Amino acid sequence: MSKMATAWRQLPHLWMALLAVAALALAVSLAVACGNGQDEGSSPTAVLTITPEGQTPSATTVPTIDAEELSERGPFSVGVTTLTLVDESRPTDANGSYAGTDSRTLVTEVWYPAEVETQATEVRNATLDLSQAPYPLIVFSHGYTAVRRQAVYYTTHLASHGYIVISPDYPLSNGMAPGGPRSGDVLNQPGDVSFLIDSFLAFSEDPGNTFEGAIDETAIGLTGHSLGGLTTILTTFGPLADPRVKAAAPLSAPACLVGAETYEGSDTPVLVIGGTDDQVVSFDSIRQTYDAASPPKYLLALVGGNHLRFGDGDMEDPDPGALQSVGGETFLQDSLRVMQATGADPTTCPEAEISDQDLDADRLHELTCLFATAFFNHYLKGDEGAASVLTSEFAQTIPEAELDIGQSSSE
Length: 411
Known about the structure:
Elements: H1 3-10, H2 12-20, H3 22-27, H4 67-71, E1 77-87, E2 104-114, E3 123-124, E4 135-141, H5 152-160, E5 164-169, H6 189-205, E6 215-225, H7 227-236, E7 245-251, E8 270-275, H8 283-286, H9 288-292, E9 297-302, H10 329-342, H11 361-381, H12 392-395, E10 401-406
Parallel strand pairs: 1-3, 4-5, 4-6, 6-7, 7-8, 8-9
Antiparallel strand pairs: 1-2, 2-5, 9-10
Helix pairs in contact: 5-11, 6-7
């Protein structure tokens, strides 16, 4: 059997699944608000109390907060705008019928705290609220075949809590890429992230720019879903890492494509989030970043959560039994190229497990927003109260959440 055929047999449960969800990812277009508060007449969610039942915080513990505030929309209204940014220093590779170009164009969505009175999820081109600037900057990376507005519930939630969030359409992995989406371009996406960070820090220093004085250059975070989670990992750890990144939260990332040595020499805080019922990227693959990274690190398992519900909308993952007919030499070559670049072992990509548990989209969104906001508030804003959410004691009050923690000796 050829080396390529052997590798193909080792990777079907990850890469063939990613191909199977490509069309579904393009169909996700609903902007689901994250935690817009309780519907009128409903009762509060008891599991979001910060102090475990029967315990009271002592004067010497980390300050506590109302965790429900982090799961709901924050105090800011949210503006959104679209920018087209061009990196003239790096090319876009040829791709099928597409000849390539000597630059990389990034159509980028930007969400930010806004000076507007509204209950809307977002307001296009609203005035930036500078009352509490500078704000941390977070880059969200979309998944394979997805688009920059893949998870509006999440990006607008972060912006409502005082973040500037930017999300590009990556040149060759988005659903409308010329020549068709290519997963292998993920190796170029850390460079795109660094270019975006450069651009927005320059905007913040540019007199008269919309974002003048808006961004805290010392507080930069990354997050992203699936292939975008892989982009987050590669831009945080290893030879493609940007040293300005202070915290990272990959969602459902295929971490089995990253060799363990990639994480050596870095102590950047990381929150790994995944669903235990993910049929596209198995949870055993997702957790490999947590296993290999140095503290401080967190692993949030959302019990019954799948893969596609981390985006907007509510969709089931594809049936693993239907994945075997999906494939292609180009896709396999891309996957092997990524693994070769990171020193990964194809045999570490395990098959997803199936259970009868099911976490609905609204609850998955709520918990993702809660823990990610607490994580970024703690590590980008220095909010010690938010750290009390990132504890096993708190996670134990939430039936759908299991939290593993690896702390540094100083914490």
